[in-house]
Write a sequence for this structure.
């Protein structure tokens, strides 16, 4: 473990020395602003390195199990974590550095070899990640970098026999991979889409809530699986919330993210821009209104989309029922929080959700009723940046987790070792339930049940008596 | 740390090499400007197979 940790800490050393270069490449290749690249990718990745290196030994430690039954007190069990072997990682273009980085770190620390396929759309970032790992000087073939189209990668990885596959991407591809993985029963972790809800209570700090909605809904041009897409606001504060939201959105500066003069960069692909536009057009055709919109640069070849707030939306619109994955939020007033919870749960996806209230205890109780993998109180989206919090969703948002101790555990499989501490004693020849069978054994087993669950002292005592007769067989050679 | 053996491997680090046939390369474009910023060769299914075999032995 010490050697592995030394290698992995070299990744952080590389990032620390090259943080500006890495952020610049992320910004250039993905379109997000330089600040976004540093804040949401380079920074969290570096911090995650320290976290996993510090905790890997603890996560991988053997775990002794207490005995579940006094009759089997001689059986001492422990769980050990066994690496899968060869772990495949297929990563997306929206967080092209931080998402694969943590998975590579966890995979290697857990004792696997890793094959990474980064998104074709952001190959420059993939290559800087490769350079970062190369810097550590890992032994040959412990880490391999692959560039191939996403349409081929899943089949190629599974057919080649990776022992586990980590995929982050769209729901349809996740479903395809699950079907494909069934051919070999290859285990999968799927981090898929989100159509995440934000619930604003009538006692929320509306300024904070509106600013949070803008950040989590528009940051990275809305291309965050855990970003805000739907906002449900208590009717008492709906108009006040909207007024702040409008002011914040209309003042967003959209442009080339290479300097700090832009709040929002460009979208990564034309294809995604078309999807977002399709969702907006669908909503407009069904009666929505654009309540607020930011300006975009003119006369540019860049993939810039205005940040948009839609009102008069309902769940028949694509923007509310599907993942838009763009800088668009739909806002609905609700009669009460019960209605907000019902609407938040009215989705095939369940990645994240946030509840905004000055009463944090109440907010947490509301959050527990939403079917989503991560609930934030008075914040949203940022939990992916916390190395200690498992990331993953309910429903079609995915299977399994990355990050934290649960995510780390996904890189290994549990093996249980059961040791009989009496087995080397010369007088214990066999277990009482081993052949040849006799009626005494049957009575003994029934006695065991009576001993623990019989009604009254006498029934339990008779059970104990029968069991002890059968148990005595353990000491006999037959 | 390795990349699998590939017919296009010699170009792997050459970000601006346009000599690789189109279907065997990934063209990276800056989405904010539309400029081509890098070109990388593409690995094959066979490369992945070799990579997994080598990784298993590592």
């Amino acid at each position: 473990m010490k050697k592995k940790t030394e290698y992995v800490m070299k990744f952080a050393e590389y990032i620390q020395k090259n943080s500006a270069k890495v952020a610049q490449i992320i910004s250039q290749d993905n379109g997000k602003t330089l600040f976004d690249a540093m804040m949401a990718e380079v920074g969290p990745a570096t911090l995650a390195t320290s976290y996993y290196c510090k905790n890997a030994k603890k996560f991988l430690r053997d775990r002794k199990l207490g005995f579940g039954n006094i009759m089997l007190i001689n059986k001492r069990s422990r769980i050990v974590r066994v690496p899968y072997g060869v772990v495949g990682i297929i990563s997306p273009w929206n967080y092209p550095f931080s998402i694969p980085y943590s998975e590579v770190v966890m995979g290697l620390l857990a004792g696997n070899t890793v094959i990474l396929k980064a998104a074709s759309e952001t190959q420059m970032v993939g290559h800087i990640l490769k350079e970062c790992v190369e810097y550590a000087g890992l032994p040959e073939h412990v880490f391999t970098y692959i560039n191939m189209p996403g349409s081929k990668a899943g089949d190629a990885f599974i057919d080649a026999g990776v022992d586990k596959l980590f995929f982050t991407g769209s729901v349809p591809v996740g479903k395809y991979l699950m079907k494909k993985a069934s051919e070999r029963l290859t285990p999968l972790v799927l981090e898929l889409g989100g159509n995440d809800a934000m619930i604003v209570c009538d006692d929320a700090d509306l300024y904070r809530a509106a600013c949070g909605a803008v950040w989590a809904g528009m940051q990275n041009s809305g291309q965050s699986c855990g970003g805000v897409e739907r906002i449900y606001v208590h009717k008492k504060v709906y108009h006040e919330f909207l007024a702040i939201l409008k002011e914040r959105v209309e003042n967003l500066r959209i442009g080339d993210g290479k300097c700090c003069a832009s709040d929002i960069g460009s979208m990564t692909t034309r294809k995604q821009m078309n999807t977002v536009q399709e969702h907006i057009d669908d909503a407009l055709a069904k009666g929505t209104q654009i309540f607020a919109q930011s300006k975009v640069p003119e006369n540019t070849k860049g993939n810039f989309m205005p940040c948009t707030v839609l009102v008069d939306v309902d769940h028949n619109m694509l923007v509310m029922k599907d993942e838009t994955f763009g800088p668009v939020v739909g806002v609905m007033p609700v009669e009460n929080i019960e209605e907000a919870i019902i609407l938040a749960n009215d989705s095939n996806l369940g990645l994240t959700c946030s509840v905004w209230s000055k009463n944090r205890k109440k907010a947490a109780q509301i959050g527990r009723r939403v079917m989503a993998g991560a609930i934030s109180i008075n914040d949203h989206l940022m939990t992916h940046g916390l190395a200690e919090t498992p990331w993953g969703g309910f429903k079609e948002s995915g299977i399994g987790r990355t990050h934290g101790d649960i995510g780390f555990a996904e890189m290994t499989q549990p093996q249980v070792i059961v040791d009989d501490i009496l087995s080397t004693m010369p007088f214990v020849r066999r277990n009482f339930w081993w052949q040849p069978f006799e009626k005494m054994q049957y009575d003994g087993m029934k006695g065991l049940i009576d001993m623990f669950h019989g009604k009254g002292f006498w029934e339990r005592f008779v059970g104990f008596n029968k069991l002890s007769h059968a148990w005595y067989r353990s000491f006999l050679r037959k | 740390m390795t990349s699998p053996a590939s017919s296009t491997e010699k170009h792997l680090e050459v970000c601006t090499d346009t000599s690789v046939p189109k279907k065997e390369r990934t063209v990276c474009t800056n989405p904010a400007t539309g400029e081509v910023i890098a070109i990388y060769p593409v690995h094959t299914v066979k490369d992945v197979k070799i990579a997994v075999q080598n990784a298993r032995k590592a």
